[in-house]
Every structure is written in structure tokens, then in C-alpha cells.
Protein 1
Amino acid sequence: MVHYICETCGVQYERTNEVPSYCVICTEERQYVSSMGQSWTTLSQMVESGIYKNSINLEEEGLHSINTTPSFGIGQTAYLVQDKGYNVLWDCITFLDPHTIEKIKELGGIDAIALSHPHYYSSQVEWAEAFNAPIYIHEDDKEWVTRQSDNIIFWSGESLELQEGIVLHRLGGHYKGATILEWQNGHAQKGILLTGDIVRVVADRQWVSFMYSYANFIPLPSSTVERILNDIRNIEFSRLYDAFHRIIKEEAKQRVIESGERYIKALDGTLFNT
């Protein structure tokens, strides 16, 4: 029996003899099944192929990005936040090999893994077992976990402090339990927000957007975006990193608020007349 991985979203499943008949993540309206059909692989097949490798790059003091090349699944970026001897892996990627484990151990390992939403659960249990780390997932997204583990901690409420200065906030929107990470000491104590694609930086790096489904272009209602903005107004940060290595380097909080206000005007029909 093996842990199969959906090649479209990169999420790993419970151990089975036969490939799953479908991916519960991809057949849901926020994601999609590849036009080439459902396909599966395993982590051992990925490693043995020699095709994939992870790049671990220093973004700024205390923050490394982790990317797989060539891109696999959704193609998101994971981040390693380092603060006062405490290392948090924010979001996850599927590919994990001995070289990656060695390099991350050289950086102090991983003390906790925190996830923004189900699209990035990937092979989170493999990562947790490799580094003996707990996985923090909001309980509102419990139903989407495709591989169970004693390492998973389902937290509740609107926020959770993992370590002094590192706080998870449930924003909802993209998923009911959609979460962002506030790193208060990041960017020289000005604050960094890591958002997955709960808040996603768009092509114009001075703006962000909020969607129920990015793949299928399903927007969120204006009332939900207004609630998200109210939560973000209570968080202090000046820089923002999203799931696809897009960065708002300065005045990120103001840019998010202005983006949300623009989004609401567009949905309410007051931004433009076409």
C-alpha cells in the first residue's frame, strides 16, 4: 500500500492498494480536475525520477522561501519563518527529499507547520514526520484533511499564538478556516503578513484580491471582504508575501485595505460603468 498524490493539486492521501477514484480537493468547485484527466503519483516516484528539486532561498532576515522546480501541483511557495530559535513552516509543498531535509536541519529544523487552507496541505504529514513537528490547521477545515496524523492539531477560534510574535488568524473567505500568519518581528519589527492566497497579490504588485475560487474565477461577496478587512485593520504589518512569491514590500496594510475597498466598489457597481 502507498500514499498516492494527486498530480493536479499535489495533496497526499491515506495509504491504499489502489489509486483513489477521484481527488476530493480537485472535484470541488474551488479547484479543478486536469483537462488531461485525473492522475496520481507517489513521493517515492517523484524522488526516484530525479526530475524535481527544491530551492531554499533567503528572502530577508529570518525568512526563507521553499520552491519546487519544475513546478508541481498548484506550484505554491512555502516559507520558513525563523524567530528567536523557533522555526515555523508556513504552508507546504509536496516534494520532500533527503537533500531538502538536510538543508532545513542546517537552518534549525522545523518546530511547527501552519497551513493557510486545504489546497496547500500537500504532503504535510511527510514533513511533520521528518522534523517531528506539529501541524496546525483550523478546525473549520478539518473535513478536507486527506491523510490523518497524530501530528495534526486542529485549533479553534479566531487567532492562535504559536510563539510570542507569531500569530495565526482565521480570516475565512477562500475556505471557512482560511488562515494567515502574522510575524510581528519580521521586516525589522515592522511586521510581515504571510497570506497564502487567502489574500493574493495580483499582477500589479500594489494591489491584492480575494476570491472564493481563483482557478474558476468565483468572487467572494462584498460582505465577506468587508469582514476580512475589519480583521486585517487590527493587524500591524508593512510587508506581505503570498503563496506565489509575490511581495508587497512597503505599506502593505494600506494596500490591502485599499484593494478591499476597490473590490467592494466593483461588486456593488460603483467603481465603474461599462
Protein 2
Amino acid sequence: MSSSSPKLLVFDLDGTLIDSRVDLCNSVNAMLKHLGKPELPQQVIASYIGDGASMLVRRALGDPEGDSTDEQYVTAALTYFLDYYRLHKLDFTYVYPGVIEALEAIRAAHPTLPMAVLTNKPVVPSREICAHFGLDRFFFQNYGGNSFHTKKPDPHGLLTLIAEASSLTVHTIEPPQTIMIGDSDVDILTAHNCGARSIGCTFGLAPHTLEAAVPTHIAHSPKDWPLLVGL
């Protein structure tokens, strides 16, 4: 591995490793129906994904700034959404074509290169989904939106993974030796906020947000990942 090659790869989940759009949208609409509200088009709900379950629910309820005066109502809506999603998270969700092959290629070329997941999805369904699809075998850690006191794009989670990965290797890993891979500006800004590099995935849920965030590299398919990380 050359000096410019990464020492840590961190992946987003939704829109990067898996396409979970339909199950998330169905869960949001089930929540809205339960509350007696009109359902929303999938493309609208999909545009709300990326900042965690709470913001997804708030946006669907028409509270995008999180300034609702009825927090009990929002909490009840979030609870229903999470309970429904817990049961239906694997109805239509699938791993993007090329993801397994790309991860296997990276692992084969660099058996000791640490890889992890950092998502704003709650950590329990994130880990369960990765385990279901056999993705967990590639990652030393999987952190979710409720793993820390902050979520992406705050860099705390990424910095934590850098510190943990450093403890697994002989040398300390620095942020510039880390690549955050994701499909939205949230992931790219997370990398920017701690001095890491980034790969923006145009095949995901929010490719329209990538350009303004200015990722280090662009991937049009998971098959691009091995080349972009220096294989």
C-alpha cells in the first residue's frame, strides 16, 4: 500500500451499501396512516433520508426544523415508525450490485485494512441488516445515529472510529489517511469536518447533494471503490 493509500475506510449504510428506500418509505407512510395523515410519495420521503430517524419522522410530519411544540406527539410518531421499521426493514431492502465484490476485492488486496460502518440509522437495525446480508464480516465496527451524542456531519463518530482503528494497527491513523464513503452531502461534510478524504456515491439516495459538498472522489458504482482507494 502506497503512502497515499488509506489506512481506514468508513462506509455509510443507506444509499451506499444497501438500497433501503422502499422499506423506509413504507414505514414512514405506515406511521402517517396510523396518525390519520395523508401518505407521501416515495420520492419525497427519500429526500428526507440521511439525518437519522428522528429528522426523517419530523420532516414527514412537516417539522423540518425540529421546532415542534408537541414533542410528545413527535415521540409517539417516532416510536411507531421505529417499531414498524424493525419488523419490515428487510421486506424490500437489498445490497447494491457490486458491493460484496468490491469489499472482497479490497479485503483480498489488503487483509488488515480496517473497515467500518458509520450511519445515522439507529445502530440496532444497522447491525441487524449488515448481519443479515453478511456484510458484517468486513467491518470491525458499526456505529449508528444513536451511538453517540451527535450524528453525522458532526465528526465525533468518524474520529472515534479513527481512534479505534489506530488501536488495531501498529501505527496511529490520521484523518487524511481515512476515507469516508457515502451517497450524500452529510457523509462528505463529515469527512471535511475532521480532515478526512471522501468518496461520493452517485448511485445512492441523495446524489443531487454531492456536488455542493465537493467529495474527493466520485464513484458511479461500488465497483469503482477498489480503484479509488488505490488498488
